Amino acid sequence: MSKVGVNVTVIGLTGGIASGKSTVAKYLADNGFIIVDADIASRKAVEAGSSGLEEIRTVFGDGVIQEDGTLNRKALGEIIFKDKNQREKLNAIVHPRVRDIMEAEKEAGLALDKPVVMDIPLLFENRLEHTVDEVWVVYVPKEVQIERLMARNQLSLEEAVSRVSSQLSIEEKKQKADKVIDNSGSLQSLYHQLELLIQPYV
Ligand SMILES: CC(C)(COP(=O)(O)OP(=O)(O)OC[C@H]1O[C@@H](n2cnc3c(N)ncnc32)[C@H](O)[C@@H]1O)[C@@H](O)C(=O)NCCC(=O)NCCS
Ligand SMILES: Nc1ncnc2c1ncn2[C@@H]1O[C@H](COP(=O)(O)OP(=O)(O)OP(=O)(O)O)[C@@H](O)[C@H]1O
Questions:
Q1: pTM above the 0.90 mark?
Q2: ipTM score of complex
């Protein structure tokens, strides 16, 4: 049971790539929520000199390691987003390390007696629903997701589609959600929804 104290709770925040999780997480952090971010944890898990990075070098070769000893994220992304087997090899290296890092950060956050938000893009893919009290899905239609991803990361349509296709569909995630945050409109509309959504927690 992840609840600590009376009003403290653990919220799972997920959605598709570029659906707006980080935008939502920043609003929540500005309103007193503790954010535990899986993408930040996955960067820690493979930082220069880590066992995670050495395992990646062993599996994927020196071609994904930069001169300065850090991970060449673009090179590794080009390999794993279009090849399921390669992606599963990377996940097997990174995900156990990410879970340990995030568990420690979750406990530290709960000790502060504040609501904790676990920002996990692959929450449903990795069957982590049982680790949170409720799941909030940031929803945008697939076309909007692809449009915003291409704009943010300067990706081609093909690159954006390969990333989106490497995850459970956003429609499936919407069906599984305890609460849906519709981010297909303006930022103003997003923040208005969030203002109402966080009332029980602030
Ligand atoms: C492949 C990597 C190096 C690409 O790095 P890059 O800086 O280009 O992307 P970034 O890390 O910011 O991820 C952007 C988004 O891609 C999606 N994504 C990342 N990894 C995966 C994956 N293994 N499977 C599906 N989607 C993924 C997520 O929506 C994530 O928010 C990096 O994503 C990575 O290390 N992925 C493996 C760890 C992982 O699964 N992270 C997701 C946390 S749940
Ligand atoms: N309502 C909105 N209107 C227009 N642009 C938006 C809106 N919400 C988010 N964006 C933009 O869309 C892009 C994706 O948003 P964000 O980075 O928050 O998504 P994310 O789910 O965290 O992505 P990732 O899965 O890569 O971590 C960003 O460039 C962000 O500024």
A1: yes
A2: 0.97
